[in-house]
Structures are given as structure tokens and as C-alpha cells.
Write a structure and sequence with these properties.
- The protein is α+β, with helices and mostly antiparallel strands.
- It is 54% helix and 15% strand.
Length: 381
Amino acid sequence: MQFEWTAEQRAIRTRFEALGKRLAQHASDAAEKAPGPFAWQAFSAERLWHILIPAAHGGDSLGWWEFAAAFEGLASEIRSTALMMSVASQAGFIYALLSYGSEEQQKKYFHRLLSGAVSATAISERVTGTNFQSLQTRLTTDADGYTLSGSKYNISNAPTADVILVIAKLTEQTKEHVALVLLDQGAAGLSCAAPDSKLGNADLPTGAMTFESIGIARENILGPISAGARNLMEIASIMRIFFALATACVITPYLRSALHFASVRQGRSLPLNAHQYVQKKLVDIKIGLERTKWLSYAGLSQLLAKNPEALVTCSIAKIVGAEDISNGALELLKLYGSDGYQTGEISRFVTDALGFLSAGGTEEMHRNSIFGQLTRIAKAA
């Protein structure tokens, strides 16, 4: 596990911290205009995706810790949970290609991602949620390869995605497999619904997808189908790690502003920060973000090392991060009082932060997954 950034990683973090500040300022200047597309162009211009993509495919071949440094720097200043969720989702797609993609798949899709393409990973369904064991989206074998049929629900980046990783169930004889299907936007039979209308996170476009008997060539299957379930768990886990890291970092500038507010706002003839209960609110936010950040690092380290405990740690980081950012946002709302309840930065942050309670899987789903992992580890021991 890494405890300190290297000089190169610190430089990367600083560079993306500066980008986060610029994007936060742009969002403030844009007011009601959606800054999402502008931010996505900035990610590409600053070579965010190059960090992960191999030099053989046009990237910089740096690695996951360098990407984590960039992600942390960006998240610590951007003041947008939605945009960091988008980045985490794309990181998962890149992880899938790096880990399980063929040379041809990597060549095709890495080039597109470096050119600004947006990806989506379609797991969730309206009836089954993210429980991939009960998927109703089906992949069936035919003479030319496969046919994909079904639908997906509440998929991050779906309305703007250029490439999609669809998770489907394939039945061969009496055995069911999880299949990872690469699909291009515009494929015959693919339709995307209008963007969802959500409580918050407006810069994270989500929506439904329908697949009507879409022909899928064999070369569009990512990794061996027999290992699909295991591979999907790793892809989901890397996204959970960066969702958790986002919760730890995005609250940082809000905490900084709150510290200033508490130093100048009077309460009972004293600054608010002179009262121990106010100090406790702010200190608890700091404790929360630090424990989530270090859990995220631990999960990333384990995942990269193929540690069997990795999936458990990734889910724990996601649960803790979602709890800490939602609790922290509500404490900020209470600290600012009626000022925080007005339409503006704090109230918007509260509605955005609450999105982490379901984004990346609910607490109940993760606890169920952790219990299953603990049971398997115990049996193996």
C-alpha cells in the first residue's frame, strides 16, 4: 500500500487540482448552463485518460496510482460530485479493457476514449437493480454470434455515451454465465431514453437503455464468458474505490469554506468556532473524509495486488464514504442555518451528496455482498 505520493505523483495531483479550480470557477460563471460537456473536454485536453492507457495505444502508460493522484487533485477542488462520478465510471470502463480486452478491442476503444469518447457501464435493471445474478437482459447464441435483448435502468452517462459495456446473462445448456458485451452507440436495435430527472447531480446524465434483438459479433465479447461474473466484480470494485475517493475529496473545499464561515459568524457574542459543538461538527467531517480516503487507498492496493480481501474492502469504502459525505453535507446545512437552506451551493451539495447513498450500489446491497465474500473467505480458510 502506498502512503506517500512520489514527486511525479504530487506534480500530477497539483496539476489536476488546478484543473478542478478552473472547472469550479467555470461552473460558477456558467450559472444555469450545464458545465458537464465543457468539463469532459477539459479532462481530455489535460490528458486524464492518457494516464491509464498504454503508450502502444497513444497513452502515457503511467498507472493507477498516478490516476488516483490526478483524481484526488481534481475531486478536491471541482465541487461537483456528478462529474467525479462520471470520471469514476469511465475509469471502470478503462479497467475492463486493460484487464480483459483483446489487442483489437483495446486498439479500437482506447483510441476513441483518447479522442473524447464517453463510456457507460450498463449493469442496473429496473426490477433487479445491480444484482447481476438475476439479470433479465439476455444474450443468446445464433449462427452469426449472439443476439442481445433486454433493458437497463439508471445508467450513468447513458444519454451521452459513445461506447457501452452491457452486462447480460447467457444460458448455455443448463449453465448461466455473465457476459460482458461491448456495444457502440448507434447500433441497430439500441435506443436510449431521455435523461432522468433527478434530485441532484445534474451533471451526471443518467437514463434507460433498451436492446431489441441487437446482433453481437463474437469479437465484441469482453473476456471469456466463463469468467464474466468474477471479472464484473473487479470492474465494479474499481468504480466503487473511486466513488469512495470522490466522497472523501469533494467535501474538502466545503469544509474549508465552513471553517472560514464559523470563524466570522457570531453566535452568543462569540464566533461560532468558539463553541465545542461546532468544532465537533467540523472535526467529524475531517475524520470522515480521512478514513474514507485511506480505505480507498487500501482497496486500490488490494485490488491491484489481486488480494482476495479486495472486494470486501472496496465495498466497505463505498459504504463508509456514502455515509460520511451524506452526514457531512447535512451537518454543513445545519451549520449554515437558513443561509444553507437557500437555493445555492450548500443546499445543492446536500442533494448531490445524497446521491452516493444509491450510486454505486446501496448500503444493503454492499452489506449483502460483504457477507457473501466473508462466507467464501471463511470456507476457503
